Amino acid sequence: MRKTLLSLSVAATLATPILAFAQQAAPQSPHTLSGNAGLFSSYRFRGIDQTFGKPALQGGIDYGHASGLYLGNWNSNVSEGAGFPAANLEMDFYGGWKKSFGDFGLDVGFIYYYYPGSDANLAAGTAFASPHTTKTHTGLVDNKEIYVGGSWKWLSLKYSHAIDDYFSLPGTKGSSYLDFSANYDLGNGWGVNGHIGSFKLKGWSTGSDLTDGDYTDWKIGVTKDVNGWVFGAAYIDSDAKGSCNPANPGFYCFANQLPAGAGARLKDAGRGIAVLSVSKTF
User: Under a CB-based contact definition with an 8 Å cutoff, are residues 235 and 273 in contact?
Assistant: First the structure.
């Protein structure tokens, strides 16, 4: 038995370096795949309420290559009154290239916002039908943008440009959004974040609250990572024209349904609100 144990010990000793060498020699895959999921007390897109103040379940999947190329999909429930008549789901498809250069980063890409089941024609006669043009839309509500972003350590700046009518709003091609954000790691799983954004809706800002789509939005928040689960709390606000006063309604006064018929409820979509969340990347 001793001889047997000795032989096994010698064999194990010889095998260990071989196994270690094999593990070290294995090439690292240039491909990465990750997913994410989260529950939010409200969904705010660029500071504007997308779920009529109700919770949102969100999630997506991302593919990345060592070259910097990436593709992804992200999804959330929405309210049709946010400008997506007959729809209750947002699906985003995006791709681009990003690279880090020390503390600096560069990101360029394209994103397509898709709302299955939506019908832009149902917006006729509402704030989502342009008073400046006779152009009409048929079929789905959507939006296509190109973007370019830069980052330095925990600061980032991103510019997005609509290459067709902004969410099927006639005459708004060329609308843009500038986003300046900060995400700072405090250690021990704690983090703070802030954001300020400026939106320009091309072709609609005539000075009237009903047609003034330009606004600035801001956010400040805190996060806590607990075993991979990220809990967050943030305050989001804007100066978007969202008054629902019948005498002077704002562009961002949204109904809970479209068309906004009898019994529809109205809400200022740009109002300040606290948003709680829990999310995980896997």
Answer: yes
